[in-house]
Amino acid sequence: MQLVTIPKSLPVSSAIVPLRLGDAVVHLPLTGTTEELGRARASASEVSTDAELGGDNAGAMSEIDLALVEKRCRLKAASCRLFIERRAAAANPDDEREVLDRLNDMIAKAKAMENCFLWVFWRNQAQPGDPILRQIADCYDAQADAVALLRRVDAVADGRRAEDEESAFHLLAESNSALRVALADTWLSDDDRDQAETHVWLRRETAERRVFIERHMTADDPADQANSADLRSRIKAQGKRLDEREAATKGVKNALGQIRYHAGQLSKCRPEEAPAHWTKISDAVKRLQGMGVSTTDRRVAEAVGSAAAAAWPGPPAGADFMADVIARALTLKSEVGKTDPKRTNGDEREWSPSVLGVRELLRGKRMVIIGGERNAEAVQRLTQAFELKDAEWVELTEHGPGTPMRGPIYRPDTAVVIVIIKLTGHLHSEEAREYAAAAGKPCVMLSGGYNPERVAAEIMEQASARLK
Question: How many Cα neighbours within 13 Å face the side chain of 227?
């Protein structure tokens, strides 16, 4: 038998070469010739350098899909819990077979997603104990919940509140930090993609939107990974508040629609049918009052219309509040036909020169209002009077922090900050001044009412030079 000798130029040897698996780098022992091992190391080095210099990995980070992040987090949470089941089923072949079938289905789902690596199923590495895996699963779910909440807040086209956005950002920062801490107990040597992408997205968006996140944005300010249950409860609570607000908005819309419909029927129905329509209208107005909509709200008057108002027979028993609605509707009728070359957005009022002057300074920009609870009717009046992009009313609790106003004040399109002194504590008033000064925005202190004429007068006196 003739032995084949290996040339000395190609000696057989072994080495540890890095291999990237999804979010992790695994160092594998390889055997081969010196040339082969050299090529393997060179390939690994090229991948590493490409990522550091903004190659494939950096390109993926540039377009972060939060919807996909949410799906991957849900699947990773489920994979951690399924792995715990697999451990428990190891002693029973029938149970283990059923778990393995589910495991294979889960892996197939992961493969169908972009960049989804279920690291807990990697058989060549030891996985953490069950308590740690449960904690990691809860942290993945908490981040998914927070991502879903922020996506929901961002999806609101009209009426989005700054405090909703800022609260959602804080919750996402906390969940993201907790997930990073929890994953430190795994064999992963690189950041988990969904934790890292979410952190990158947070930094980009908070910088662009001028939202200041006080906690959990740095490695030296970690969130508690054991606090996921409380965190998810707070996320759920904010979602419930959004549900309630959406329901209230829908209720207002439905009530106005009912008023509009029955007011329209009054011109078509027989005289004996009119009382039933007026009853429906008054019932809807009463419901609106319960939802915080005043009887003098322009929307109610417009829904009734001047034609129906002119035919009003008088208030039935218990419906005296209808007199305000009818009076407002008839006032609108008297305003029809008045012309104002600068009137836009359905604003039919003739404004003073002060309002028109401020309108020229603020048109298409944002006003931030500090003080008390948000008054939707006042926001609408100010927005129309000054043709604003938005009048953003920041609600603050009496002894709570003033940081929720920082983000809105720092927004690039914010032109002026209005502080309603009688509705704002001294500390919050001073904080508003400081934030406005730091952001380079004029801060107007309002000592009286906040109707457009009063606001315009104070803006002209305190801030017109800076706005010009």
Answer: 13
Q: What is the pLDDT of residues 363-420, one digit of tens each?
A: 999 999 998 888 888 899 899 999 999 999 998 887 788 889 999 999 999 999 999 9
Distance of CA 107 to the CA centre of its chain: 31
Q: Give the global pTM.
A: 0.60
Q: Please name every residue paired with 32 in a beta bridge, in sequence order, or none if there are none.
A: 13
* CB of 374 closer than 8 Å to CB of 395: yes
- In the chain, which residues have pLDDT < 50? 1-11, 45-60, 336-348
Give the residue among 164, 90, 76 at the shortest CA–CA distance from 121: 76
Query: 126: which strand partners?
Result: none
The angle, 0 to 180 degrees and rounded to 10, between the axes of the packed helices 66-88 and 193-209 is: 150
- CA 27 from centroid of its chain's CA atoms: 40
Give the pLDDT of residue 158.
52
CA distance 266 to 253: 20
* 403: Cβ contacts below 8 Å, ≥ 6 apart: 166, 212, 214
3-state DSSP assignment of residue 452? helix
Maximum alpha-carbon separation in the chain:
120
125-144 per-residue burial string, b: 16 or more CB within 10 A, e: under 16? eebbeeebbbbbbbbbbbbb
Cα separation, 288 vs 306, whole angstroms: 20
